[in-house]
Amino acid sequence: MAGQSNDDLPLRTPLYERHVALGARMAPFAGYEMPIQYGKGILHEHLHTRASAGLFDVSHMGQALLVGPDHRTTAAALETLVPADIAGLGLGRQRYTQFLNEQGGILDDLMVSRGPDPADDGKLVLVVNAGCKEADYVHLDLNLPDGVKLERRDDKALLALQGPQAVAVLARYDEAATAMGFMTVASLTIGGIPVFVSRSGYTGEDGFEISVANSDAVALWDLLLSNPEVEPVGLGARDSLRLEAGLCLYGHDINQETSPVEAGLTWSIQKRRRTDGGFPGYRRIMRELAEGTLRQRVGIQPQGRAPAREGTEIMDMNGELIGEVTSGGFGPTAEGPIAMGYVARDFAGVGTDVQLSVRGKLLPASLVPLPFVAHRYKR
Fold first, then answer.
1. For residues 3 and 169, what is the distance between their CA atoms, to the nearest angstrom?
2. Which of 66, 187, 246, 282 is 20 to 30 A from 109, alpha carbon to alpha carbon?
3. What does the pLDDT look like over 285-298, one tens digit per residue?
């Protein structure tokens, strides 16, 4: 049998050796060997993030720059691919949006930031999903106009510090962290290490995502972990935290068939874009905004203790198929099984009783508001 080529081996982030030294259980994820959990387990890591501060390695995510002659030009180029108002993005601000196909389906979701320094006019910082980044970069290269170029930042790692104590930890090194609001960005210095920071994250908690040079990633990781409030957290708890927060995971809750409207993401399409259009799938999205969608993303509360996993069929009370679970598991803070999925619009009202087909049995559940655990962002 031929040996495995280097091209087939999982990639490693700059923090791989640190994860192994901490006893992490590593597993393949989006082409990388990533920590799923550490010695204390997913439940502990989840609850610690909610109570204090959890440190995540998310360096598998794609970081890139769009560079043009000025903000107006670069924003206009990106707006041909996404439905968000990028032209109106202020200095030091971040916005969530999606790459859309011509049918209005989601190719990927991403964060777009405009730095705080006027000297960087014309530059936009992108953070895209790990599993989609190569396709995203090709998509950008094929569609950007002359004068606007994509610059990959494979030289950057990304750490996420999440939880109610995250701001106190960062402020020990740079007081400017305290003044940052939700979805703002700033250039900070943490223990002598220059970083680009957004006050955002994927847990529903207050927190920060910290872009740092690969060469400084280990030093920054060690420094942040030296704080008594901070513990390492793997992708297992990251998933349970985002599920409780009602946040979509690409490839599960959203994909190339899903529109932002049926996914409940219409808040990310600002008024000017709804009026002016100019992005892929505009006709479908405007039709859905006016007439409603055939299906809708909902929160699901199973009764009992059995979790409803992705792919679980959702039935009405007569046993008729009305939808499917796209994310599900146990919510440690919610103290029970929780799930998200899509159901036919006529059945999508909060309080609707449904049945879940779990291991050949129909189990009772009800539709509940999202999120399952209230967000605690710094507004």
1. 46
2. 187
3. 999 999 999 999 99
